[in-house]
Design goal:
This protein has 141 residues and is of the alpha/beta class. The chain has 3 helices and 7 strands; from the N terminus they run E-H-E-H-E-E-E-E-H-E.
Length: 141
């Protein structure tokens, strides 16, 4: 069964959530997991794309932004509309919605910040997962 962890930033803002995603991606890469990052829109996908390329001046995280019409078979994909069918190790959710395909993944990371709208949506997802018996973790960063 899918293991789901919630990571909540003590600060508000997309930049805070991108920083958490970056940390989780680095950890997952070290464990050789195939990662899909689900976002809420193209703008967020592109901001994360830029963040992953430029966060560290001396290194980068190879990845691709993808859509339903293309699958580059990268170990790290980012999309707001692509639904992975295979290679479902780790899903990082930067969206306020529960991805319909979340249960294909071994692990899911839900990333939240202190914005009331984001917290409320996160609480609903937490309740949904809990009510269905998923293993849940909660980490405040």
């Amino acid at each position: 069964m899918t293991e789901i962890n919630f990571y909540v930033s003590k600060d508000e803002g997309l930049q805070q959530r991108l920083a958490i995603a970056y940390r989780l991606v680095n950890q997952a890469v070290q464990r050789q997991l195939i990662i899909h990052i689900h976002t809420d829109c193209e703008e967020t996908s592109l901001k994360l794309d830029d963040y992953l390329w430029t966060k560290e001046g001396s290194s980068f995280i190879p990845h691709s932004v993808t859509s339903n019409h293309e699958n580059n078979y990268q170990e790290i994909t980012i999309s707001h509309e692509f639904e992975p069918i295979t290679n479902c190790d780790y899903l990082i959710n930067l969206s306020n919605q529960r991805p319909a395909f979340f249960s294909r993944f071994s692990k899911v990371a839900e990333i939240l910040d202190t914005n009331e709208e984001i917290l409320t949506a996160g609480r609903k997802r937490y309740s949904f997962y809990r009510d269905r018996g998923y293993t849940l973790g909660y980490y405040q960063l």
